[in-house]
Amino acid sequence: MVNNLETILGQLNEEQKQAVLHPAEPLLILAGAGTGKTQTLTARLAYRLVSKTLPKSGLAVTFTNKAAGELKKRLEHLVGYVFPPAWKPFRLEAGSQQAVLEVGTFHSLAARFLRALAPHLDFQANFSIYDMGDAEKICKQLLYNVPEHTKKRYHLTAKKVLYDISHYKNELVKPLQAMNEASEELEKIIAELYQKYQKTLAEAGAFDFDDLITRLVWILEERPEILKILHDNYGTIFVDEYQDVNTAQYVLTKLLAQATNDITVVGDDWQAIYAFRGADYRNLLAFKRDWPQATVLTLTKNYRSPQAVLSAAHGVMQPVTERSDKNLSATKKETTLVKMVTVPEAEIEASFIVRDIIEGRSEMRDERSEMRDERRETRDERSEKRVARSEEIKYIPDEQGLEGSILNRVLNSGRSNLANVMAGDYDFSRKLGSRNLPHYYAGQKTAKNLIECAVLYRTNAQSRTIEEAFLKAGLPYKVVGGIRFYERMEVKDLLSFLRVLVSPKDTISLERAFLLLGKGLGTSSWAVLQNEAEKKEQPLGDFIFQDKAVAVLKPKPASALSLCQKKFESWAEKIASLRPSEIVRLILQESGLLDLYNDGTEEGEGRIENMKEVVNLAQKFDGALGLSGLEIMLQEVALLTEAETEVGINGVTLLTMHAAKGLEFDYVYVVGVEEGLIPHGNSLNSLAEMNEERRLFYVAMTRAKKQLTLLRAQMRTIYGRTLPTIPSRFMDDLPSETLEEEEIF
Description:
By secondary structure, the protein is of the alpha/beta class. Helices cover about 50% and strands about 10% of the residues. The strands form four sheets. Strands 11, 12, 13, 14, 15, 16, 17 and 18 form an eight-stranded mixed sheet that branches. Strand 9 (about 300), helix 16 and strand 10 form a beta-alpha-beta unit. Helix 30 (about 580-590) packs antiparallel against helix 32.
């Protein structure tokens, strides 16, 4: 490891150095947007490592796997710190110490702690981690027993039930407490479902995501000797994005740090935008209350945006009374102003963006002579040109699956429909009063670098008109979001087999794997098996591998079940000496999944490629044999909570304002700066929600590195009705000297 303070401190400003060199005492670093938060946190971690000022091992906690990975890479580069491989077993022992530093998300570290502590507790270390789909499936099953009139009266769905259960857990409310505190009928119903939901998880030997934090907190609160084991191993904790912690994460952080008071948290309450997930920025503002001896340092030098952007964003936040006080100053010398563009309608809003990216200018002058020349073309000639263009158009798709987009609907219905869209009656260029938009392709020169352009919107529905305009102009784009790799059907199918091998009591995976493997075994037969297991008061995962399970079924499903039993018994014997990647190959070859998706279509080929990609993933864990390596791999997969979306392709990025958090682009276009969108209509009657909208707009604005353009349409079509709009109230808070206003007629 490199012991060179100059390497660590050389690139830091004085504010950052002060934070890095602060002693091992409670420290809150208020890091404004673009002030080098990650660089400062990395440098503080590196300094504590090389100066040997970690009294025991340390924990660095992030919210996303991407952030954890970035932190590790920076530490490896900065001081040569070597992290243990992902497959290495993780153990906790009283009086011992682990590796010098552990970096991970709240959920990944909690999962590792729970597995390591399992010998001291009442569950097995090989528990499954259920994702949202698995959890919703349990809730759907539980709702079968709720009367239809009750479900209709309270609009009960699996998602609503799961949301309410998640809220209970994030607030550290146990099922019994929820039952005792319920007064209204709906509260009683949800509390009862919560109790049954937890019972189902326990029978399956499974935790959901919320359990990873809440169960650990409850254990540490109730078992001081377990908490002492963690204190023996870890004496220092660093938490990134502290404004986003919920109650359970907040309590966990306090429990882990209470022995030494050696805690550093980094965050910005001005960028707290996840209240809908249970995050509470007030935890950050209360840090000084929780740790009276704490020091609060503020990073104010912004390395990202022009001063006009910072001043405008600062203005948006001034009406918020419950906030920290900071005033960012730009290190860049650019004097670029924020553009505020008003257009007649949403379609022109979209076309303005296309034109600005392609030609690098915002003025949309009437070019009457060229318009007269265009009118001389016959309708057929124009149509032929557009059809010809459609045959050449190149589009960079979102590889995560863009099911809901206008483009995907067009492409899925065939190239002829794409041509129809290209040759449609709606002429955007005529609306603009300018010549037809030129055709641009991926890789061909445009005025602005496409990968440095982003269009931000408040709701996903707003992307439709943007996508149409980009498609018509042939401008490559990418919508961030869509189906994540590990949520794809074929990948979940394969993972279900692997999860059963690790945890046979995992009922969700059991059902999925057995119904895929056992031809002739269907949902009705599965219901019979569930009922029989309940009668015998046995977990389904135990009962289903017994001979008496076969005996309760009719001949065809009984034969299918017998086949499943033999297959899994055979695999269980084989895998002990196999590496994780070899286990995945074995399942692919013998499960029938490759044959299932080998239907001769491009979609089928894509699904097969996705399953084979799991083999590549498994190779990362080949340092361990048998179930141990497979178990660690499945844990990592379960904890991949981020969308696996790459932004750096050669296309414009389209994304929601929430999805833009943590990203930056040279050119940012924020559309729909109107009442009802920004701020959202749901926030108009709540001061707390209105302040959240202000913070969200602040985040959107501060993504811009060179130019920020805010757009509003005077008319917008909502649910089939075209209505006049009202400019966003936030515009009144922008200092006039920061704006360059333009109106398109």
